[in-house]
Amino acid sequence: MLISALVSASTYAACSSDDSSSGQKDASADTGADTGSKDGGVLVDSGAHDAGSGDAGLCATDKVSGIYTHLSCTGLYDDIGTKKVALTAKAYEPALTFWSDGADKSRWLSLPAGQQIDTTDMDNWKFPVGTRAWKEFKVAGKRVETRLLEKVSASNWQKTTYLWDATDSDAVRKDDGLFPVPGTDNYEVPKQFLCAACHDGASDTLLGVEAVSLSLPTATGVTLDSLKKGNLLTTPPAITQGQIANDATNFATLALGVMHANCGTACHNNRPAAPAAFTGMFVRLHASDVLTLTPTPVKMLDSYVTTVGVPMGHVLADAGALDGATPNRITSGDPSTSGVFIMAGNRVVPVSVEQMPPIVSHKVDTGGLMRFQEWITAGP
What we know:
Blueprint lengths: L2 E2 L32 E3 L2 E3 L11 H5 L2 E2 L2 E2 L8 E3 L4 E2 L4 E4 L10 E7 L21 E8 L2 E12 L2 E9 L6 E3 L21 H5 L11 H5 L4 E2 L2 H6 L22 H13 L22 H4 L11 H4 L9 E2 L22 H6 L21 H13 L2
Antiparallel strand pairs: 1-15, 2-3, 4-5, 6-7, 8-9, 8-14, 9-10, 10-11, 11-12, 12-13
Helix pairs in contact: 5-9
């Protein structure tokens, strides 16, 4: 179905896609980097060296514009050859994760020694300088890319991604992206500048490391509870186990989680820099909604108030029953006339605001789409 959006792609660059709706994971495939070749302005080799924990000579001169060229120098691994992760890099899995075209993801977080996350505002965390976060993507069981975010000053994060070589022995920085990744079904490694499209809508760049996603029961590794117990939060909450409300449909909890992770945390929230703040559609859950003995009722959530029965700002063409009309964001009882459902189930070439998410996604999240369909059909 063709969606004619009334907003520009440059303004509305990226909703709903770095931490996944239905809980599916991210991954990638072989990049086919050639020894000694130039790839995107960065020297790419086959990973024949094994930087590991002891290749101080390589890493001493490995930075370009403040960012390491080789993943092996970033501190994630003690030994990249054996994939031995450094003790300072703590694995975690948020309960609500962002759709990445079916890739499997692994995540690690490193906080500087003796520092805490500023949680004075539980909805808007601020991370200490020196914080690093890595996310590894696998497609069909093969490592494709590992992304790095590192906070280098009070107002600046370095962002890059590393493409894994054919031997799985190292990954090399590639800021200009790759699409499609050879050996995959149209998997895309994003261009570095696109990272800001989602991450600038966070309170402090890092997505997924936040009160809601780390407090729900299926979160593992670094959780809200473990951060509190480790004295890593400046203002720890009284309750660390969250819960999302349900409604009479019995499908609301899962659908609200999909919207929070894929649309709300980065784009559809009321933070000034959020790319979709101008739409007035806010589907990010607040800490106060879930960190309570009695979660906020569904009909009082922003996710409901700003979507159910609220007209979209888009005209949808060739969309079945809509017949070129402007739909509601959610029409209770009818997914076919609900813009959120239609756009989430749409993929176009080239990617644009005619689909959601509008960048770096070429496959529909069928699991997340089903969560929408179940809830909308049941009549919120």
